[in-house]
Amino acid sequence: MGTAVGSGSQPQGMRPEVRPARPGDLEHILLMIRELAEYEKLTHAVQFDREAMARHLFGERPYAEVLIAESHADTGVATTVGFALFFHSFSTFVGKPGIYLEDLFVRPAFRGQGHGQRLFTAVAGLAVQRGCGRLEWSVLDWNEPAIGFYRRMGATALDDWTMFRLTGEALRACGGGS
Prior knowledge:
The chain is built from 5 helices and 5 strands. It is an alpha+beta fold. Strand 3 (78-91) and strand 4 (96-106) form a beta hairpin.
């Protein structure tokens, strides 16, 4: 999950806003996912299907939620500058739901203006409102700007855990499919 945000001020005449995503935001979300993959040097891993993403984010049973960061000009025109995509998890040890932050991304031209902090604190606020015991996420080990940002927000790294992943053919073989 990439982010390169810092503290800064909003340019003159621009008002920031964080809001829940709507179906009309899908194209912006998909574009920013590609931009995030480029930042993380993982464009080869992007393989989503537009219709499936629409269903998974805005369908009858959404699997994830998205917050959109916008910057509003005094003219009333909104510019989409970033997003946070997250979903619920559950901790058996804590006995409460949690939120897993899959992606937090602010477009390069808008970094350092507080959008990342607003997105992050909005997700944390939802975790508090929903009675969650945790907010968790992963960061690529080379992404020092993101690691520094999260440490400034009060987060601690879980250096004693190793993430595993099962995908593609290995997932199908393990799950009994072919």
